[in-house]
């Protein structure tokens, strides 16, 4: 039925377009002469007039029909079945199986009647949707056709429609963001303030607690559950690994960007830059086992040869590999912004007798600073949000430490650990994931705001 | 008669003119190649000190390219090759032992589009003295910046906002800032590559006045599209066409009584 609906729509649109365009075209030849809008715009407007009501009718009508058909099923069953969500599900599955011919055993009379009613309403309803949609579409088309004249401003109307579509697209993205934020905020609120939640921490316990052990909350008889949701070790773990990653990627990325944009021959740059960017395309799970199986044992062996005590999963291993991962973000973006610095600034510095390195240090890097800072911010955001490498290489132990040779865990890893597997959604443990998500979101937001302030203060605008 | 050897036409022997002041720059048989393009062919010219010399000619005639040979800015273009001899104060500037950084400290340059650094007005002027270590302390540096801005006729307008960004100035002020920046390293020669082409007539008049004032202390070489400008500001003029120096002499003579047919056609507006 869906296929028929859209086939009808397509045929009508094509027909409507050509009829309207043709009619406008014929006006052009006749008295009155010049058209306000090109015939194409009359055609496009006719097409839009068909598409909008037909899509709307389909989008509203189809779920409505399904709803009506479903509710009709329960007229044939006692109300206690209709009111029990579990039994409702069973009945609906039976109806659907019966209609598909997959029902096993002999169906009851009530079930058979219900299925017949469902099928009847469903078919009639979809036909009605098709009928109403087509009728409304044709009505709109007729309205447009009746208004076509040499002064009809079809172009203006069509362009208004285009603007509406663009606004709609922007709204979808914005509303999605708002929706996600609200859902996270709401679940976080429940985590802290829902009185029915067992073992929930207070806000200050969460933010300043130094012990993280979400499992304890489920087993209230063991240990002190109040300290189980201390968030500090996760924060320090996240910051430690991110710091190591930036320590690796910052200099390597920035210096390779300077080399690529200022010193390398165009031929070298043409193949070196894509190769660097491939690094960004390596799946993080591959980097993760590289970290866990290659880098971590190497660091351990190296540490032991110095007599250091190195955990087999260490923040250093995860940080190093994460640093490798974010090098291309820094190098590629910085290279782009350095290249965007106008040649005239370089010429100006050279003409004053500046050497290449003086020009880079004093003129090019300051001018490119806003872009370089945003490259770093993007890289840091990636590092903070990265999960897979840390899961595999840094471990799950929530140690409160700044020693890069110990195992640590991060916010993202704990979110993943909490939500993996079958979980009761209403426990403090699962809701903790939302609280962590909220904090993560907040930390990233604060970092972005700080970065924007830095950029604003040190910005050297060259245009 | 012109003969060709290895694709490069040999020049007529160059007879140096009698200059009113000392000769600052001497160029003999300068050739520039951009890849396969022979952009400058056998240019020989003497450029006087404490005077303004104008290079005129239609677009793409090589006048800017030749200008950029004098401070070796063409070095920054990989495919560019310069042959021949250019001497400043009788020293070959293409001598391998010469440090291009020191050359450029002596030969300042002002570009077509004002290109102040995205820094404060003070920092723009202080940049050159800083990298060449010309100021021993902060007082010295202040002194250099102030006098340079004064010489460029900009100090009065900006003295209360030296900390503002150089890019916040108007186009004409930006160009004078660039001139101040060039003056600050106390060069002997200032090259100007169409310095007024991005400016309005009032700002242009201001720059032309400035050029006239600066003439007594510097050797100024200006590339210009405007023949009126060349006539107004310069004492000597060289006319370039298709990479060749067609004619060169006293500005007045060039504009009133050119020797060559092509020069006459150009200055009377028959082409270009």
Structure description:
The complex is a heterodimer of chains A (463) and B (272). With 463 residues, chain A is an all-alpha fold. Chain A has two domains: 2-152, no CATH class; 225-458, MetI-like fold (Orthogonal Bundle). Chain A is built from 16 helices and no strands. Chain A has helices at residues 2-29, 39-73, 79-83, 85-100, 109-147, 154-193, 203-208, 232-263, 266-281, 284-305, 315-340, 343-351, 356-385, 388-393, 411-419, 428-458. In chain A, helix 1 (2-29) runs parallel beside helix 5 (109-147) and helix 4 (85-100) crosses helix 5 (109-147). By secondary structure, chain B is α/β, with parallel strands linked by helices. Chain B has a single domain, classed as Rossmann fold, CATH 3.40.50.300. In chain B, 33% of the residues lie in helices and 26% in strands. Chain B is built from ten helices and twelve strands. Chain B has helices at 63-70, 100-106, 121-131, 138-151, 155-158, 171-183, 201-214, 227-233, 251-256, 261-267, and strands spanning 4-5, 8-9, 23-34, 37-48, 52-56, 80-88, 91-92, 107-110, 189-193, 219-223, 236-241, 244-250. In chain B, a hairpin with a 2-residue loop joins strand 3 and strand 4. The longest helix of chain B is centred in the middle third of the chain and has 14 residues, at 138-151. In chain B, 44% of the residues are buried. Mean pLDDT of chain B is 87; it is low at 1-7. The A-B interface holds A 265, 342, 344-355, 358, 362-363, 366-367, 460-463 and B 71, 73, 76, 78, 101-105, 108-109, 111, 113, 115-119, 127-128, 131-132, 165, 167, 178, 181-182, 185.
